Amino acid sequence: MRYKEIFVNIMPYQVNQKAYIYEGKLIYGQFIQNRLTMTTENSEYNVNINVQTKFIFSTSGSASSIVKHNNAFKELKINLVYFTIATAVSAEEYAALLRSPISRGAAVTGRGGLKSTIIPFLDEVEPLAAKTRAVNTVVNKSGKLYGYNSDAVGLKSALIKGIETSGLEIKTAVIYGNGGVSGVAFHVLQELGIKATMAGRDPKRVAEKRRQLGIEQYPDFGGPYDLVVDATPVSSEPDFLNSAGLSSLLDGCKMVFCHNMPEKDDKTNYLERYCQEKQLYFIPGKWMYNAQLAKQYRLLLEGYLKADGSPISEQDVMNTWKVEQ
User: Fold this and answer.
1) Please, what is the angle between helix 151-166 and helix 180-191, to 10°?
2) pLDDT tens digits for the chain (325 residues)?
3) In angstroms, rounded to a whole number, what is the distance separating the alpha carbons of residues 257 and 218?
4) How far apart are CA 188 and CA 168, in angstroms?
5) Which of 12, 41, 51, 284 matches a 20 to 30 Å C-alpha distance to 223?
6) Alpha-carbon distance 39 to 301, whole Å?
7) What is the CATH number of domain 152-287?
């Protein structure tokens, strides 16, 4: 089922119409008259839609995000719906969905390398996103797709906050992982004057990532490292220390940043627990997430107005989403 069929199927006033995309693999929901019902972790969330409603999609699969983002849209009184995709989607499929008439844009997560693989399917990509090979925000402007990266702003803010708060001197860092966040992390660490290298479970994939980023000229170097940047989802697993090479990177480090946020959905962050036990300074992913969200939604909401007719600013986003500053 392609997006043109979906567009017809999700128009209002169709009773008991299942909201399936690509034969039901991507999105779950049910339309009864003009109401869309989405399933969250423990309940259902309802939003009203009409023919002018636009969707902001996400590949996070996070049930808590359904409530948070849609409540913010309701508070701002704008005709948008946030819809998260819990299963795998290819870059080509996702771009086709985002180019459809029902889409305003999307958040792009790193699952399956999507932040990088979606780039060829976009019409324009900002220089930073092209340099880091990572798009985490796509905006649909009259059917053309524009790719941006707001992760860099978020990570830089999180690292500065952690370094200043801890009082630790951070001169070296290793990035664990080779997904979309790894390129952003290398860029940010360079901006902060921190000598950085990359590692991961698969040395061949790490080498390929370095080649894609054009950073082969920066020599690899051994630890111990002052900072470990975990750009993988392994912190969700109780046996995360079995992830190849991670345990040795953590030995002797002073500080750990964890991009993954299982705690957002009331799950355990085992890397955070480890840092508490080892008395390592831990920078949570939410520090990055909060800072990047303000920029991301400023991009997605460009052209939308508040009830008083004024444009929605980045500060409005921070206030409405209750972003910690």
Assistant:
1) 50
2) 343 333 333 333 232 333 333 333 334 344 444 566 665 555 677 777 776 888 899 888 677 788 889 999 999 999 998 988 777 788 988 898 898 888 899 999 877 889 999 999 999 999 999 999 999 999 999 999 999 999 999 999 999 999 999 999 999 999 999 888 899 999 999 999 999 999 998 989 999 999 988 888 888 999 999 999 999 999 999 999 999 999 999 999 999 999 999 888 789 999 999 999 999 999 999 999 988 998 999 999 999 999 899 999 888 999 999 877 6
3) 22
4) 18
5) 284
6) 25
7) 3.40.50.720
CA-CA distance, 154 to 170, in Å (whole number)? 18
Among residues 54, 74, 77, 115, which one is catalytic?
115
Whole-angstrom distance, CA of residue 56 vs CA of residue 11: 16
- Residue-range domain boundaries for the chain: 3-149, 152-287
The radius of gyration of the chain from alpha carbons, rounded to an integer in Å, stands at: 20
Please give the full DSSP string across 247-313, using - where no structure is assigned.
HHHHTT-SEEEE---GGGGT---HHHHHHHHHT-EEE-HHHHHHHHHHHHHHHHTTT-B-TTSPBPP
- In order of 34, 188, 198, the CA distances from 183 in angstroms are 42, 9, 9
DSSP states along 180-248: HHHHHHHHHHHHTT-EEEEE-S-HHHHHHHHHHHT-TTSPP--S--SEEEE-SSGGGSTTGGGSTTHHH
152-287 and 3-149 share a CATH fold: yes
Task: Give me the CATH code for the 3-149 domain, please.
Answer: 3.40.50.10860
In this structure, are residues 30 and 36 in contact, taking their beta carbons and an 8 Å threshold? Answer: yes
pTM of the model: 0.83
Q: Is 115 a catalytic residue?
A: yes
